[in-house]
Amino acid sequence: MSNNESPLIHTIEHNYGSTQPTSETPQDGGITDRRPNATGFVASNAGMLYIISSQFFFASIHISVKMLNSTEPPVHAFEVSCFFIFIPRGITLICCVIYMIVMGVPDPIIGPRGVRTLLVIRGISGFLGLCGLYLSLQYLSVADATVLTFLTPLTTAVAGCVLLKEGYSVTQAIAGVFSLIGVVLIARPPFLFNSMPAAIPDVYYLPETTPAQRLVAVGASMIGVVGATGAYTSIRAIGKRAHPMHVMTFFSLCCTIMSSLGMVVFNIPVVYPRSWRWALLLLMVGGFGFVAQTLLTLGLQRETVSRGSTGVYIQILFAVVLERLIFGVVPSLLSVLGAAIIMSSALYVVLTKREPTQESTTRSTV
């Protein structure tokens, strides 16, 4: 880790975290074996476990959105990206503010001093990340969209290294690259595997798209990657200087404002569920999104983005299981191989956690 302090990290005014950093001193140059007992393992890897747990709910969102696109009549992805961001985020905003007022959390509306700008950045970047994901699913298969989305852990690790001065070891980089290879083997995007079936049957794809539409979808996905990178990095920069509900409040506020403006500018009508299945899927997307964002926030408050981003790759494993249960897709040999690569990379990163230096220990309480 660089000795130069990042300008994004400031003096602690209030520690909202419930997990304190470990003070164990490494004996082998910074790498410590994490095998003594289950309690110690969970405590020292709380951030990573939060992040891994959040990926189940993110995978559930992807499946739910794709199922929405296959309803009759299908729900346009832009309707989902604006209307359905507006409704649940507005509800989440109200619930978060009420929770903080009832629990006596300081500054429930405007957030703590010193991190308000970062909270706004987290909200705006998070909105762009959601929009990019939903819009890319309009013209891309889940396989293609998944591979593009999983560029985020690599870009996030680089952003954490450059902007937050966090360490990014060669082994973490190698684990990230191997995890991305595992994602490609599982998703098998058509642009790389033309002669092989993709991970989800064609019945769940949207109608054939033109090259221009596909290019727009790829561009939207890249905007989503940039947005997600900004969201992850800003959450880590905020650290424990803000309560998780502060982060959720600003995220919900920015999403509510920007999605409502999008509905007005692009003349998107207010849509209502036309069937119980549609209503149920919409509720599922909203509920999964709230839980996923909360767990992700808790995780990134306790873990460096370079290490924590590796846990994001676990999402594809959850997606494979959900596709088997919902779509009846039997994993191929390549999918099993990809899953094994991802699990091995994630376990390696978890079991060889690099202990923080004195500087990073101070920052981890932020």
Architecture blueprint of SSEs:
Blueprint: H1 38-44, H2 46-69, H3 77-103, H4 116-139, H5 142-149, H6 152-163, H7 170-187, H8 211-238, H9 244-265, H10 276-300, H11 305-308, H12 315-326, H13 333-351, H14 358-364
Helix pairs in contact: 2-10, 2-12, 3-4, 3-9, 3-10, 4-8, 4-9, 5-7, 6-8, 7-13, 9-10
Would you give an account of this structure?
The structure is a single chain. With 366 residues, the chain is mainly alpha-helical. It contains 14 helices and no strands. It has helices at residues 38-44, 46-69, 77-103, 116-139, 142-149, 152-163, 170-187, 211-238, 244-265, 276-300, 305-308, 315-326, 333-351, 358-364. Helix 2 (46-69) packs parallel to helix 12, helix 3 (77-103) crosses helix 10 (276-300) and helix 9 crosses helix 10 (276-300). The radius of gyration is 20 Å and the shape is globular. Residues 18-35, 200-206 and 355-366 have low confidence and may be disordered.
Which labels suit this protein?
366 residues; mainly alpha; 65% helix; globular; disordered C terminus
Helix content: 55-70%
How many strands appear in the DSSP assignment?
0
Shape estimate? globular
Structural class: mainly alpha
Unreliable residue runs: 18-35, 200-206, 355-366
Main pleated-sheet profile: none
What is the count of DSSP helices, taking H or I runs of 4+ residues?
Answer: 14
Mean pLDDT: 76
Taken as a percent bin, the fraction of beta residues is under 5%
Order of helices and strands: HHHHHHHHHHHHHH
Distance between the termini: 16 Å
> What is the rounded Rg?
20 Å
